[in-house]
Amino acid sequence: MTYKTKQKITHISLVTLAWVVAIIFFFPIFWMVLTSFKTELQAIAVPPIFIFEGTLENYSLVNERSDYWHHAMNSIITSFGATILSLIIAVPAAYSFAFSPTKNTKDVMLWMLSTKMLPAVGVLLPIYLIAQHFGLLDTKTVLVVVFMLMNLPIIIWMLFSYFKDLPKDILEAASLDGASYLQELRHVVLPLSWGGITSTGLLSVILCWNEAFWSINLTSADAATLTALVASYSSPEGLFWAKLSAISTLACAPIVIFGWFCQKQLVQGLTFGAVK
Amino acid sequence: MKFNLAKNTVMNLMKAPSIIVLLLWMVVPLSMTLYFSVIRYNLLNPADTGFEGLGNYEFFMTDEAFMPAVFNSLILVLSIITITIIMGIMLAVLIDRTFPGRGIVRVMLIAPFFIMPTVNALLWKNMFMNPVYGMFAFLSNTFGLEPIDWMSDFPLASIIMMLSWQWTPFALLIFMTALQSQDQEQKEAAELDGAGFFAKFYYLTLPHLARSIAIVIMIQMIFHLSIFAEILITTGGGPGSDSTNLTYMIFTNALLDFDVGIASAGGVFAIILANIVAYFLIKQVGKNLMA
Predict the structure, then answer these.
(1) What is the CATH number of the domain that holds B284?
(2) Which domains does chain A have, with CATH numbers?
(3) Partner-chain residue, chosen from A115, A148, A274, that has the shortest CB–CB distance to B215
């Protein structure tokens, strides 16, 4: 066997391996979607059924029993609301950290990141009681505020790393006095870093959408997001797998599709710009 | 001078909102937690108040679930991070070549990252790990093995499995991107010098990934120290306290037993634990990211 054929065989076997692993990783999702089109009996059949006549019954049943659109709207409003709010706060902050660093900047930013280390459960009761005090339990407002605070440090860090990568000479030419910094932010920095801001926003939306701890503990019916809705299907109805799959598919579909579309932007965001 | 003043004012105004909200977010709940942790405060028994001193801490620490909970928290964080990093690197290297359908393979590998934790937990618990109808039971039977009752026999391992499935794609995403910027000429040169696959991996690829590994560790640690939904939905911390982590233990004290005092003492523990773990990492990683 020559060196070339040997290399070719290695290549082919590695590619096969890649495909096999990918199929294994994806299988649970595929299985969930498939099960959502089965009847309950088919769903628990042993051996598992792969080919069957699909039904949409589960989707209509799930829709009858729990108001999917209500919860989906809650998810959309809280994720996007929190994201927009945190961008409004984070963009100016990151801009000033990146373009006018002082000797404390580094410490302030590390401190911000360290607030992420505060485990949610450590402050669950105070937040719960504060929300109760202001009558905000089970409202979208409290989720928006908590999600915003939760993601703010990561968002500032990501934006900071984008802003730092902007070409410096363009910026210096544009800046003059205090007021024109705002102008510069608006007319020079924002247009140049639009991609970075979008990818930061995307990540924030995904993190909010999938957030479970606060949504489960701070909401009950009115403001329950899709994560909380799915959690409510957990034990007593656990064996209605087809319906469970239908609700799960409905809950995940928007964000999975959303995530696939923007995976490229996402990566840049996730790496804090540290990996090109 | 005038120019500087104006500039500094504007700059300070720009960062002020973020610093103020984060300071409030940290200080207010933290001081409340500290205060609650030293008083008697049970929502079911509001008449019973008063200073408790370190009693809540003592109660929380002597709870027989405490040591397992601390231990489980650390096991969860360490094992998930280790598994996802090793798998992530292997997969990233594996698909770092051109082949037909690479885009599809990538999308399939990344998908689990977007699945919400509650769905992840329900999916695995029921359709895969159920000892009678689950896919794993079916596979065991096919190979003539006894099906495993995952939730009661290997609760912690089951949770580690679910989370690794979800977070390996995250590690992969980051390593994949990092590999794209690896110096190909250097690799070719090493090949000409007779370096084998492992030598190249060890001396070139691994050092190249160092920074991404730091990022993956840091972000995952933030998320995994407080794993909650997966435990709530699958094992409920059981059997016994075999899969209870600190987060879940505090949750049972707080929202199930309504004991604010004890739960707050637990919260303080969670905060201390997180900070011990974080201290070393944030310092290292933060330095890396700032550079």
Answers:
(1) 1.10.3720.10
(2) 3-59 (no CATH), 66-270 (1.10.3720.10)
(3) A274
